[in-house]
Fold:
Amino acid sequence: MTAWDLPGAARNELKTLSKDNAENVARHLAMAARLIDDDPALAHQHALAASRSAGRVGVVRETVAITAYAVGDFALALRELRTHRRITGSDEQLPLIVDSERGVGRPDRALEEGRAVDRSTLSVPVRVQLAIAMSGARLDLGQTDRALQELEIPEADPDRAFEWSPALFAARAAVLEELGRHDEAAEWERRAEIASDALDAASGVADREVIVVEEIDLIDDDGGVDVASGVIPVADVDEDAPVTHEMPAGDGAPAQDGQADDDDSADREPAEEVAADDMPGSGEDAPEDPR
Structure:
């Protein structure tokens, strides 16, 4: 593991450190990123080691927060998230702040945090994650109908798969299940699974290349998989039936005791959505695949 295993944007934040210290911190951060899914406790230890050498660097505090959340230390996660936001002025981790407030048993405070920021200033993925976290806070308060309303956002399209669609569809399924609407819940759960499979298939098209899937149309004219055009079926569509554009929903972290500090938030430029027709390799004028 070397410093070059850490993404360039994160390495740039370490330029204020001495060369040797920056390399050591970068290695710890890279290990935390590698271990977070399989061994979050060890990932957290690497994050803490990095913070002992670079406690004033935003990406370091962010990594401590994420790993603390992963091991269930929501009070620490909140403290580190607020410090990260104070250092960087970024609201990109607002959904995690909301969910961490839920984790320490303060769903009311979680809703206040989510409402304090203009959602139009957030990137689309963050806006979706925030809707899911807010829906979870409503569930914590027993407000199931309002939990469903939190998921009624423009980004939810049952007939298209975006990078955020599986989580959003699964969240909606969870709320519908709570409402006793079991058939609808099963349908949204099915859509979540198919969307996830479609995104995996789209990623596999590029073999070893790295691509970010923004949008996938669901069905081609024959209802089949058209990998070359980027069109992958995600759901069976009845052409005579109206298309409903409803949102998925989500649940959150278990509650624990803890305290956190308050902090100010900052605006952030929203990311543009990229339609499938605008993606490289689609359309009649697309260049031939060099492979």
The first helix runs from residue 8 to 12. Strands lie at 160-161, 216-217.
